[in-house]
From TrEMBL:
<keyword id="KW-0539">Nucleus</keyword>
<dbReference type="Pfam" id="PF00130">
    <property type="entry name" value="C1_1"/>
</dbReference>
<comment type="similarity">
    <text>Belongs to the eukaryotic diacylglycerol kinase family.</text>
</comment>
<dbReference type="GO" id="GO:0005634">
    <property type="term" value="C:nucleus"/>
</dbReference>
<dbReference type="GO" id="GO:0046486">
    <property type="term" value="P:glycerolipid metabolic process"/>
</dbReference>
<dbReference type="GO" id="GO:0005829">
    <property type="term" value="C:cytosol"/>
</dbReference>
<comment type="pathway">
    <text>Glycerolipid metabolism.</text>
</comment>
<dbReference type="Pfam" id="PF00781">
    <property type="entry name" value="DAGK_cat"/>
</dbReference>
<dbReference type="GO" id="GO:0007200">
    <property type="term" value="P:phospholipase C-activating G protein-coupled receptor signaling pathway"/>
</dbReference>
<dbReference type="GO" id="GO:0004143">
    <property type="term" value="F:ATP-dependent diacylglycerol kinase activity"/>
</dbReference>
<dbReference type="InterPro" id="IPR056383">
    <property type="entry name" value="DGKI-like_dom"/>
</dbReference>
<keyword id="KW-0677">Repeat</keyword>
<comment type="pathway">
    <text>Lipid metabolism; glycerolipid metabolism.</text>
</comment>
<protein>
    <recommendedName>
        <fullName>Diacylglycerol kinase</fullName>
        <ecNumber>2.7.1.107</ecNumber>
    </recommendedName>
</protein>
<dbReference type="InterPro" id="IPR001206">
    <property type="entry name" value="Diacylglycerol_kinase_cat_dom"/>
</dbReference>
<dbReference type="GO" id="GO:0042995">
    <property type="term" value="C:cell projection"/>
</dbReference>
<dbReference type="Pfam" id="PF23578">
    <property type="entry name" value="DGKI"/>
</dbReference>
């Protein structure tokens, strides 16, 4: 270590490498687990998924195949078995992001570089530590700035680059230059804050691998009670977690909002696999679950006693419904709220809760912030009870399913034209799943199937074969009069990939605006014309807002429950309120429409002081707010509406500059949105470049423009 504190660059020595390879593990596992004996025989198969049995080893990497040409073998030139070959097969760890050639796996075991720990061993005699240490990793490429000196990292684009430019933590993502003036010895053992997402990360100190009881004569007398307790705990753990020898012992804190992430890789355009790996990098891999491997029940049972728990469902609306049904079954109290990352095709529930109509590569870090800051709202859930139609004799019942695909719906239940199109899509996808690997293709098929069904007019006689009674009111005469070809029982405002079939009743005194938490369900009828008008802002025929529905069908009719279709035989269907689920609604900073249950009101006017700064000054002063403020040059003041967007601000800033050219250089003008007038104030300013852009100036209470 350069004790004199000179400024020249000096790589960290070999003394750091061994310490870094052990950092973050020694306090979570017995020492013997770090000294793994490696034989000269064949290395064990690299693990691609977490081990949840008693054979789980702390610090195991989660290897994924990779072909990214810029990632170099972690072993370096001296130890790499293939000497940075571009064509050699490689694997990348999802949790710590190191890359190693397949041929170098055994060598990595020999140097004993472990992944970040995901749990702690039970039964250890060492006192439990309630903090996590950093997991330091050498990097040959690193984004961002050095935590110590604030300077950027020298990027190496050549595949044959040998230099380690940074040392970063896999937990908190802090990074330092690989020199002793930046990364110091005390950093190795210091506690880790877990970074910007500490509130949602499940620390490895909470997850305990229960030590298997040992049948030893030495423990028969003095430790009899303790052994029986262990067996009891182990037995209960097996009952709760179906053989998983893990227990969760959380430390309650009002600041913590631990998150469970469930990813359905098969939803929508198969985006889930990439999302799954990214969450394992940002979080503890043991709080991220792949629904294609197993359902959510085991994980929810394991984490059921964690306070302030939140859930993120990454998939379509069907994935969300699956998780809500398991929560009903487990009867968790309080029920954890569920957020949605939309990976499906329609994503109507995600749209209702402001999560959008589909995932478009938004940074996972930002998604985690939205989940943490989101507002908890309620969602009505409705029972569907199906019986045989009692008005028809047994011999007159047609062929068809005897029950619906789901007995509970969260979004909508419908019958007729839309369900027939959904049924065709479902049958085609089951027959040829490889043709439905993107959201765009799925929507194109829906459009084609709808057009074909429109020509065939398969649902034209729907109104003749149904009877609908809502809260005692018989709607059948109106349904037959208007000859509806589709009837929808709607719980949320969105339907059919984002349309709003209930619309805004406005001055219609018979109906109220729709809500998903009011205990009422909306009943809507559609003709072919009103279905087509949905896509251009139209709505269906509003029939009723009710708490209970009785539906009788007299022939086999296509139906769908939250997008799951079937052709149901003549039946009696009763719809009634089941319960309310807690959901996480994404908060929006600025919107022209108030959020549901949002207590904060939008200010009518915003007075914004506008300053300019050039790129060179901004990069040099980025981390010093006061100097950044002093270096910026005032342009003037604009006053805009509270829901104004940046494009409107740009227009008023441009107008501000035009006015400045026509007045003295010692005056400043204030521009008001919706007003033509302005008045001068003292100022000195230069005109912006035509290529100027906005900077995030919220930290210094002004709007910065980059010249």
């Amino acid at each position: 270590i350069d004790s004199a504190g000179s400024n020249h660059m000096q790589p960290t020595g070999l003394m750091f490498q061994k310490a870094i390879s052990r950092s973050g593990l020694q306090h979570l596992a017995p020492v013997h687990s770090l000294n793994i004996a490696v034989s000269n025989g064949p290395v064990k198969e690299p693990r691609a998924a977490l081990e949840w049995t008693e054979n789980a080893v702390n610090g195991e990497h989660l290897w994924l195949e990779t072909n990214v040409s810029g990632d170099l073998c972690y072993l370096g030139e001296e130890s790499c078995q293939v000497k940075f070959s571009k064509s050699a097969l490689r694997r990348k760890c999802a949790a710590c992001k190191i890359v190693v050639h397949n041929a170098c796996m055994e060598q990595l075991e020999k140097i004993n570089f472990r992944c970040k720990p995901t749990f702690r061993e039970g039964g250890s005699r060492s006192p439990r530590e309630n903090f996590v240490r950093h997991h330091w990793v050498h990097r040959r490429r690193q984004e961002g700035k050095c935590k110590q000196c604030g300077k950027g990292f020298q990027q190496k684009f050549s595949f044959h680059s040998k230099e380690i430019v940074a040392i970063s933590c896999s937990w908190c993502k802090l990074a330092f230059h690989n020199k002793v003036t930046c990364f110091m010895l005390h950093h190795i053992e210091e506690p880790c804050s877990l970074g910007a997402h500490a509130a949602v990360i499940v620390p490895p100190t909470w997850i305990i691998k229960v030590k298997k009881p040992q049948n030893s004569l030495k423990t028969s007398t003095r430790r009899k009670k303790r052994t029986s307790f262990k067996r009891k705990a182990s037995k209960r753990g097996n009952e709760d977690n179906k053989g998983r020898p893990f227990v969760i012992k959380p430390i309650s804190s009002p600041l913590m909002k631990p998150l469970l992430v469930f990813v359905n890789p098969k939803s929508g355009g198969n985006q889930g696999t990439k999302i799954l790996q990214t969450f394992m990098w940002y979080l503890n891999p043991r709080q991220v679950f792949d629904l294609s491997q197993e359902g959510p029940k085991d994980a929810l049972e394991l984490y059921r006693k964690v306070p302030n728990l939140r859930i993120l469902a990454c998939g379509g609306d069907g994935t969300v419904g699956w998780i809500l049904s398991i929560l009903d079954e487990l009867q968790l109290n309080p029920q954890p709220p569920v957020a949605v990352l939309p990976l499906g095709t329609g994503n109507d529930l995600a749209r209702t809760l402001n999560w959008g109509g589909g995932y478009t590569d938004e940074p996972v870090s930002k998604i985690l912030c939205h989940v943490e800051d989101g507002t908890i709202v309620q969602l009505d859930r409705w029972n569907l009870q199906v019986e045989r139609n009692p008005d028809l004799p047994q011999d007159e019942l047609e062929d068809g399913a005897r029950k619906l695909p789901l007995s509970v719906f969260n979004n909508y239940f419908s019958l007729g034209f839309d369900a027939h199109v959904t049924l065709e899509f479902h049958e085609s996808r089951e027959a040829n799943p490889e043709k439905f690997n993107s959201r765009f293709r799925n929507k194109m098929f829906y459009a084609g199937a709808a057009f074909s069904d429109f020509l065939q007019r398969s649902s034209r006689d729907l109104s003749k074969h149904v009877k609908v009674v809502c809260d005692g009111t018989d709607l059948t005469p109106k349904i037959q009069e208007l000859k509806f070809q589709c009837i929808v029982f709607l719980n949320i405002p969105r339907y059919c990939a984002g349309t709003m079939p209930w619309g805004n009743p406005g001055d219609h005194r018979d109906f109220e605006p729709q809500r998903h938490d009011d205990g009422y369900i909306e009943v809507i009828g559609f003709t072919m014309a009103s279905l087509a008008a949905l896509q251009v802002g139209g709505h269906g025929e509003r029939l009723h807002q009710c708490r209970e529905v009785t539906l009788l069908t007299y022939k086999s009719i296509p139906m769908q429950v939250d997008g799951e279709p079937c052709r149901l035989a003549p039946s009696l269907i009763r719809i009634s309120l089941r319960n309310q689920a807690n959901m996480v609604q994404k908060s929006k900073r600025r919107t022209s429409m108030p959020l549901l249950n949002d207590p904060h009101s939008m200010p009518d006017r915003l007075r914004i002081r506008v300053n300019r700064i050039n790129l060179q000054e901004y990069e040099g002063l980025l981390y010093d707010k006061e100097k950044l403020r002093e270096a910026s040059i005032p342009l003037g003041i604009i006053v805009v509406r509270g829901d104004c967007d940046l494009e409107t601000c740009r227009m008023y800033i441009d107008r501000l500059q035009e006015d400045l050219q026509s007045v003295s250089s010692t005056t400043q003008r204030v521009h008001y949105q919706d007003q033509e007038s302005s008045f001068p104030r003292v100022l000195s300013v230069q005109r912006l470049s035509p290529r100027w852009c906005f900077l995030d100036g919220k930290c210094i209470s002004l709007l910065l423009c980059l010249a």
